[in-house]
Amino acid sequence: MGSTNPALIGGGVVSNQSVYEAVTEARHLPGTRGWLDDGRQFEYVKSDHATAIGKGKLVTYNPIAAAVDKVAVQAAAAIGATSISVTVDLILYANQLAGGYISIDDDAGEGEMYRIIGHVAYTTGSKTHTFEIERPVVIALTTSTTATIVFSACAVKISAAVTADANPVEVPAGVTLLSVGAGDTTPQYFWIQKTGLANVLFGTVVGAVGQAAYAGEDAGSFQVSVDTTASAHQVTVATIAALLPIDTEYHTVYLRMV
Hints:
- This protein has 2 domains: 1-62 and 155-258, no CATH class; 66-150, Elongation Factor Tu (Ef-tu), domain 3 (Beta Barrel).
- It has strands at residues 7-8, 33-35, 41-47, 58-61, 71-72, 83-88, 101-106, 113-118, 127-133, 146-150, 156-158, 172-176, 188-193, 195-201, 212-215, 222-223, 238-240, 250-256.
- The model has no long low-confidence stretch (mean pLDDT 86).
- It starts with 6 loop residues before the first strand and ends with a strand.
- It contains no helices and 18 strands.
- Helix content is 0%, strand content 33%.
- By secondary structure, the protein is an all-beta fold.
């Protein structure tokens, strides 16, 4: 019988956490990828939202907050530096953004991106926050450099309802294989499925086998396209495998999220 603990991509080891388990202490750096022996791929994420997430639900990455978009680097960082300091208006618990990225937007060092591996707790906003990074700085940064903190690899929430004719405002992340409790008091860490066969909730707009599936009009659900205008561009996240999906019921799809 195959294991339900993913083998870590690039790590050569098997996770000590099943895809059917949520924990309150991270066992991997969020953003870690893994797969099962049946070929399904997964990503390790966390939820720190007040809303619980049911199983078979579509989740999306947390959006980039205005407080961390194109902020100034507060101290020059020489080549080889292992941390980057920026001023942001955020209150953070220790390692809250571990697994996210610092994207260098403009001026010295622009075009580089550094993965965050840790930071201390910050109890007040509008101050300099220092982030430890996975690889040393390769192009020196100055106080003229601007950067954006990207949350996408570290936190997810249940997908919002999609309004007909609207352009997407969230980036699909994957599907839960278990019910995950609210994470606002204590963050929840778990695996979400990215590819392969999955049993997911369908909303009120369903289709037939072979049709593309998108984020649905019901939060956390899937459906066929509600796009009726040339300007709306929904993101395909799956292909319907069930012969006849029925609204508000669970059905099989082939997930295809990157």
